[in-house]
Amino acid sequence: MRILIIVMALFLSACSSTQSMSIFSFTNSDLESVLNKQLPKFSEKLSVMGLPVEFGVDELSAKIGPENRDVIALGVDSSASVNMFPFNYPVRLMLQVEGSPFYDSEKKAIFLRNIKLLDSSIDAGSFKGNLGVLNGEVMKVINGFLAVNPVYELDMDDPKMALISNLPLNIMVSEGAIKLVPNL
Question: Which CATH superfamily is domain 24-182 in?
């Protein structure tokens, strides 16, 4: 009986110590690299106030866990082209958004949810400032994109990663990195 208690105590202490052990992590630069490869998918034709607008994201920046919060902040530098009859007006939109990362065990990927607009600015020729009408349309595009496109996917071609992905995993967010830890 004593041996059984000792074995169970060892097992429980091993389980509790593995919960803080990271089995995989990625950084801001890893995340930016993955997101910037997806930029060609990030274009869309919209209609704003009845005018056709071609929208595209030119550059993304990422900050994992800013101020030690459990979020990923994205800087979005985008361009739009508003077509008004024979004229074409270029517009540059810069947005700061953030969302909560979560791990989808079926898709073996990390997605963002609860996406919020933190800041925005627009540069449209002689007008510089904030234009709420376009912010709403741009946020629809960003939310739609991030709902189906993960910010990070585990590499299932890596045998170690394929094996790890079969474990129940949790996310730990720290400033500059996300760690996947076993949920035992």
Answer: Uncharacterised protein PF07273 family, DUF1439 (3.15.10.40)
